Amino acid sequence: MVLLTRWAVNKVNYINEIKMRDGYKFDGNDLRFNSTYDIVKLALICMIAVILCGLSGIAGGMVLGPLFLTYNMVPTIMSATN
After folding, report:
1. pTM above the 0.85 mark?
2. Is the pLDDT of residue 25 over 80?
3. Where do the structural domains in the chain lie, given as residue ranges?
4. Measuring CA to CA, which of 32, 36, 63, 64 is 20 to 30 A from 77?
5. What residues have CB less than 8 Å from 53, skipping those under 6 apart?
6. DSSP 8-state assignment for residue 24
């Protein structure tokens, strides 16, 4: 799980670097990562939330929904990721 998280963080960081280099015009609701720490923090919070949801038996959307809203994610995109 740790290796998959590291791979995903590297991939998101690479895509973010390409967007910044090429002058991608971010939308007001786009999620921006200022550093690798921001990506790792989001990945770890989601991983902890998923583990807690699995242990307690509650739906993941109940936990991840408010988390994604704190990152200003558009609700239609948020519901698709849940």
Report:
1. no
2. yes
3. 2-81
4. 36
5. 59, 60, 62, 63
6. -
